[in-house]
């Protein structure tokens, strides 16, 4: 229990100490008008309170990522918890803060436009394609997972639940942001808190299970995977949303259009990622504790992390409490899936320069996205998840380099973004070169050395290309 509380304490401390440092480096301006007021349109640009924006941001970025990812990561042992803490404070929360605040400073623009401004036209074109692909994969993953859990919980048809969720997604994607998302998500946020806190209290008070049984300090530095699967670099792809996630870069601009003051940014963007890190820690600890270690977890998972969610929730909280907890896990991906399609619509609207104040224009972009999404739901979930994981972290890499270039232009301490960008670049390149299913299938040593070399070249390129292109401040562009 001590190790779990220490990890939670480090995350909370990271918000107040390192989060404040990051905010100071960025340099907020409380007198600067945010896009929520400068470009109010009643659809996507709508001012909201700080608390409401925080809850929506937390639900937007959460999905099943901080649940399924940490459960899969727990197969490596408590080393997964160590990465959640370090990754969340120094990479994930920094990534989310800059993706949100750079959008605030640039009229609520999406990540492809931000990448284009600070990294060049090639980066913009790459991110337009990559972001749409990622968001479609996210939308499909976050349809299949909750539909499967609903089928397991009720005994009903999974196909029927897929259809129901699709209809909800379409409605939530095209109506004004404050009509459904702004009204329902605070309630869903309370359900999320119940699920997380309830499971933690239940495992602590349980007479049958011990929190992190038999693990010692040295285990946090070891790979305990029962199949001897290599920890590097797979762990850093697997956990994703619990530590650092490119999907969040596509979501932060949604709330950048609703933030009322730049001083709210640390709480909304950095703070929501810390909150997600705590959720990830809880599920990682519950998975290891309820099944008494990695061997039991492997057997209990039986190839699907949804089995862990269902088994642990009902086993620790009983029928009613378990139902509420599983319901929370169902709602999480749904509340991220709808905003994934919404983000895709807005990225396309920026690309085609198509204002979204009129319903027909929203439908013109949304319907093709849902048709493609419906086709992708027929692909095996495991295949979609693997591609989602790689696309997710590659997007995070691009956003971190974008933030690094921004800081370089402003002669600020760019290393707070450059170092995590370098690490995640090495992770992605090494994983792709080593993977036999998604990449080249090269030996791990060759893949890692190649990843380091590519990372050093990218670092030099970004620094050289950005050097001398100094800026004082961004001007919010006019709408349309």
TrEMBL record:
Protein name listed in UniProt: Inner membrane protein YjiY
A single cellular component GO annotation: plasma membrane
Transmembrane intervals: 80-104, 125-145, 157-177, 184-205, 229-247, 267-288, 308-332, 363-384, 390-408, 415-433, 445-464
Family: Belongs to the peptide transporter carbon starvation (CstA) (TC 2.A.114) family.
Entries under Pfam families matching the protein: CstA (PF02554)
One example of a Gene Ontology biological process annotation: cellular response to starvation
Organism: Shewanella algae
Family matches, as InterPro entries: CstA (IPR051605), CstA_N (IPR003706)
Membrane topology: Multi-pass membrane protein
């Amino acid at each position: 229990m001590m190790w779990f509380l220490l990890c939670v304490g480090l995350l909370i401390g990271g918000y107040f100490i390192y989060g404040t440092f990051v905010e100071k480096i960025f340099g907020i301006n409380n007198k600067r008008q945010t896009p929520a007021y400068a470009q109010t349109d009643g659809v996507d640009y709508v001012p909201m309170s700080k608390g409401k924006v925080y809850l929506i941001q937390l639900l937007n970025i959460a999905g099943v990522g901080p649940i399924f990812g940490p459960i899969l990561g727990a197969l490596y042992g408590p080393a997964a918890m160590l990465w959640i803490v370090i990754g969340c404070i120094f990479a994930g929360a920094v990534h989310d803060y800059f993706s949100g605040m750079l959008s605030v400073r640039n009229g609520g623009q999406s990540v492809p436009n931000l990448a284009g401004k600070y990294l060049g036209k090639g980066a913009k074109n790459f991110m337009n394609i990559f972001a749409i692909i990622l968001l479609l994969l996210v939308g499909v993953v976050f349809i299949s997972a909750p539909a499967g859990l609903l089928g397991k919980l009720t005994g009903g048809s999974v196909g029927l639940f897929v259809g129901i969720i699709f209809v909800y997604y379409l409605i939530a994607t095209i109506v004004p942001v404050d009509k459904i998302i702004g009204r329902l998500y605070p309630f869903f946020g309370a359900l999320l808190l119940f699920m997380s806190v309830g499971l933690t209290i239940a495992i602590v008070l349980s007479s049958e299970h011990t929190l992190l049984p038999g693990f010692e300090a040295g285990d946090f530095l070891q790979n305990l995977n029962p199949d001897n699967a290599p920890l590097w670099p797979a762990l850093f792809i697997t956990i994703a949303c619990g530590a650092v996630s490119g999907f969040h870069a596509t979501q932060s601009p949604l709330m950048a259009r609703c933030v009322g003051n730049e001083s709210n940014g640390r709480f909304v963007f950095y703070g929501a990622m810390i909150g997600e890190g705590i959720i990830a820690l809880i599920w990682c600890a519950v998975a290891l504790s309820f099944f008494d270690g990695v061997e039991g977890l492997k057997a209990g998972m039986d190839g699907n992390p949804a089995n862990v969610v269902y088994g642990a929730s009902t086993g620790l909280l009983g029928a009613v409490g378990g139902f509420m907890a599983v319901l929370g896990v169902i709602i999480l991906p749904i509340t991220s899936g709808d905003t994934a399609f919404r983000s895709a619509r807005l990225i396309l609207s920026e690309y085609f320069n198509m204002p979204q104040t009129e319903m027909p224009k929203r439908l013109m972009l949304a319907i093709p996205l849902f048709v493609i999404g419906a086709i992708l739901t027929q692909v095996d979930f495991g295949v979609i998840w693997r591609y989602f994981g790689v696309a997710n972290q590659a997007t995070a890499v691009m956003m971190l380099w974008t933030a690094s270039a921004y800081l370089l232009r402003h002669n600020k301490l760019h290393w707070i973004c450059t170092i995590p960008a370098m690490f995640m670049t090495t992770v992605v390149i090494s994983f792709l070169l080593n993977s036999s299913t998604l990449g080249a299938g090269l030996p791990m040593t060759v893949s890692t050395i190649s990843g380091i070399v590519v990372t050093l070249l990218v670092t030099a390129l970004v620094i050289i290309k950005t050097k001398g292109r100094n800026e004082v401040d961004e001007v919010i562009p006019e709408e349309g």
